[in-house]
Amino acid sequence: MKAAVLVKNKVEVKDFDLPKVGNNEVLVRMKACGICGSDLEKVFGKYGMKSSRIGHEPAGEIVKLGANIKDFKKGDRVFVHHHVPCYSCHFCYNDDFTMCEKYQKSNIDPCGLSEFILVPHWNLSKGGLVRLPDNINFSEAALIEPIACCLRSLNKVNLQKADNILIFGSGPTGLMHMILARFFGVSKILLVDVNSFRLEFAKKIDQQVEVINMANMHEAEFKKKSLKFLGKNGSDVSIISTSNVSAFIQSLSITRKGGSISLFGVPPKDTEVNIDLNMIYSKELKILPSYAASEREIHQTIGLMEAKLMNFEPLITHRFPLEDSHKALVHAHQAIDSMKIIITME
Predict the structure, then answer these.
(1) What is the C-alpha to C-alpha distance for residues 333 and 243, in angstroms, rounded to an integer?
(2) pTM higher than 0.90, yes or no?
(3) What is the DSSP pairing of strand 11-15 with strand 58-65?
């Protein structure tokens, strides 16, 4: 079989032996897998987490099951979650599932960008393989994991109806936050970026969203425009859906007193910022990093998608075959005319 692997900041598609399926394991033929911002950080940036595997948003079809597997059958259409917590450690008891040691050590084999994916016993035993409802296609299913991550981000900041929110970054996860927030009943959404294509794309998805293109804009002008739309108090919630460090710094002054900031985008490793800690203290700003998602948000997302309460599929602008994985990552990184990019075997 073929799989995409990271070799010195380049993704290469190489031949691998088909995995042997143990008694408590399942083999899935990948049908679709999204390209994620963390994949781009691994290839083009300085990713701070341990894993260097590319592709963690896969969906596919079961082709082989171990002798002890009773809950699934050959031909089942499934979503595959790469990291799964133990649900019984100190972190899990405190709902910090993504901080669980088992969560960060668990994974699928060899990765999501692979013709076939071995789902190990650990993932299966903890709910990391989920049967897809009939009305969710494989392309939609490749969006489940990033939507779940955005859902967890919004859950952590305790988003309220009628909130005014500010989203830095109009990439795929920025727009996923936008769609979810609108569904949850927020009043105003301000979307900020330097990418004209993506800002215009967002307006097609949500005509009520206000956008600001910050390219060549002075900070004072940006603040003035932001507060004119959001109101003099600023945003109730700000979401940093970009790795750009300046977005976080700017959010400190735009977010209202007592407001919340979701640090969602992956900052490059060893990033340092010079900020006024007294301002954070005196404004009582709540800064809440949000890394990844657990099965809780995965099932919530699948439920929302099955009910067709929101439509995320229009975010997919490009599909690439597995052999063009590096080309797909470059296209996603350049972001000239793309939103969500998926690798497909259909």
Answers:
(1) 12
(2) yes
(3) unpaired
